[in-house]
Queue: 2 jobs
Job 1
Amino acid sequence: MSRLTRRHFLKTGMGMAATSLLTASQSPFAKGQSSGPAGMRVVASGNGIRATEKAMDLLRLGYDPLDAVIAGVTIVEEDPNETSVGYGGLPNEEGVVELDASVMHGPTHSSGAVAALRNIKTPSQVARLVMKRTDHCLLVGDGALKFALAHGFKEENLLTDKAREAWLRWKETLSDKDNWLPPKSEKLTSELKPYLSSYGTIACIALDDKGSLAGVTTTSGLSYKLPGRVGDSPIIGAGLYVDNEVGAAGSTGRGEANILNCGSYQVVAFMAQGFSPEEACLKTLERIARTTKLQPRLLNKEGRPDFELNFFALNKKGEFGSARMWSGGQYAVHDGKANNLRESAYLFKEIK
Ligand code: GLY
């Protein structure tokens, strides 16, 4: 605790003391209780400000919250300049883009997902079809592609020149003992450096004016991953979880750590105990920091997780929050009045 931030202590340490006395039946989110319409909200990762705008527009027109958030993230999936999602996403170690996505619909407590899907720009839309047109929760690889083609999706090359060049530079600089050489005249340019390693993703969750919740998480996953690697984004309970009587949570960042801790489910479970969305995100990160201590290769020299992980949460009352492992990030919120980026809470302060 001594190294936890003052902000965290104030926001969660004292908050926990107050709220942990709540019994399940006292919780405002106890099963079977509905707090009623709270006003429309859309919450997303920091790269989702266009998604929150679009989703809110559709909620106002009366769209189902799942259709609203999928329409929102589709903008990002189709953007060639967003290198962590959909078209333009960074590829696997062989230079092939493989996409993961999940959707979850609160009113019907149903979900759909695809993993390691190649050649289709909008995996979130395929995930919705898995939910609506199959009796399954998750399709992977070739099976997911065949399913998408059967539903009329078109195959396209998802590797943009920008992503290909970043991949090539990654490959050329992996080792000085192999046969790949970076261009002699060119160092790693600052332009390509940010793309040497990435877990980028977009998560977007929404509440409509009837109190219904839904969410989507979509990604190209860990850059330069082993072919076939599946991250947390298509795993219900890890990259996304929705309980229509409690709230919704989504995640971005290191998928393996999230899968090992059922992160989004955990956030919703903490909200069910009465914690605020921000407290629930921070408590989940504390748990992940604790379990990561059993994997020394993932720790920095102070014994803290040497990776980023972010959670975004929204409860049925319309309260929202976000927290990340390390300071310095933002998340997108449309609260029905304005669409803004806000500072995420954090567990550990990044020392520059
Ligand atoms: N959270 C994205 C991934 O790990 O694939």
Job 2
Amino acid sequence: MTTPTADIGLIGLAVMGENLVLNMESHGSTVAVYNRTTSKVDEFVNGRGKGKKLVGAHTVQDLVASLKRPRKIMIMVKAGSAVDAVIEELLPFLEPGDILIDGGNTHFPDTTRRAKDLKAKGILFVGTGVSGGEEGALKGPSIMPGGDPEAWPSVKPIFQAIAAKVDDGTPCCDWVGPEGAGHFVKMVHNGIEYGDMQLICEAYDLMKTLLGLKPAEMHDVFARWNKGVLDSYLVEITRDILAYNDPDSGTPMVDLILDAAGQKGTGKWTVVSALDTGTPLTLIGEAVFARCLSSQKDERVEAAKVLSGPKTKYEGDPKTLIDDIEMALYASKVISYAQGYALMNAMGKEAGWEINNGGVALMWRGGCIIRSAFLGKIKEAFDKNPKLTNLVLDPYFTGELLRAQEGWRRVCAAAVTNGVPIPAMSSALAYFDGYRSDRLPANLLQAQRDFFGAHTYERTDKPRGQYFHTNWTGRGGTTSSTSYNV
Ligand code: NBP
């Protein structure tokens, strides 16, 4: 029998798994590795892993036997049934107290299910979001672990060592909460990523369509924005993309790329969660639908031949418009994060998870795709008031929205007048106007519901909680519907 020498095992040597192994090894861990196609184990151990503290295993039994107790095994395989298959294969060789960690992009209800099933077998299960892509996995990802809290003390030193660090050295990794909370927070991260990307695309479209700016000119704008309130990884890569020319033709690469967006589903999951919990997550919803609309390329090409819009004619000062677009992007981004945090609060309440809002901002501050200076301000807001109902009510963000509002409105007006689609920016403004309204037209809506379905309503001149029904036509009865849900 092999003497256990490895601190942690990892299954799944594709791009993420390999890089995480090298990251863990460079931070002092001896790592045992296994992959279903075992030739990849040898290729890795004798290739990128040569001379490093690695133990190559050709069976899961050998992998388990090489691990020190409590055994910790990280699974980095394709999300879905592959994770269940790996767990089934491992179970006969595990003992109570062993720790299994799923680091893939798993849908959080699967993690909750696995955590419960494995707990019954004495196995501690952790589901963790890992963000930052290939480079992050190697040099420092953002890590969002949740699951069985008993596992955390054993996993914490390894994860916090390999995670990205913010300026003061704090790791972008902390315990998120029980069951699927870690994967849930990673899912919301991905949803926010969809929103940020869509907003940047709308800013690009506005400058291109209203001002006729070329990619090289927009490169300069994004370079400037990246030094201000929009300082972020996604603005930084957009700056670089806009300066990149196709090596063969010299044409800006961005002009050669087909306008049909792909997606893998995490944005959709986020929006489905929002619908399930009744949370207005409008901006991310629009971002997902904008990808869907873009992918209907052939239909759009046909529609463009018959559906004419206004002739684009922007006559204002270009510099003012660029500054306004910066404000529109910024204010919309504040709304998107406010909506994302509201979703986390709603799910936290529903699932009974205590999600640490400031901790989440810190985990997203570095290493991940949505990293930005702005997240430092969100962390400060939740540090000041951990029970903040909505980010827009934090005095700093309230001030920022009020400061940005004029330019934001001018941009939305110019876009509507000139027929430029900005679903994310305009839905963010509609949310802002709705949220700041103490009276919305839902009084009429309640009247309609009561008219056709006797759904009842509350009255402004009576205490909340009393429900009334009107016989609107004189033909209905006085019997009201028994189900009333706000
Ligand atoms: P992939 O998602 O491409 O998965 C490939 C790995 O899964 C290979 O090791 C493959 O083994 C293994 N695998 C599959 Br497929 N089915 C299996 C099964 N039934 N049993 C055992 N192993 C199986 O790898 P990745 O891109 O490195 O991503 C890993 C996870 O991390 C995914 O959940 C992904 O969504 C997530 N993630 C990826 C990124 C990224 O930027 N790529 C970022 C963040 C998170 P084989 O070699 O034998 O086929």
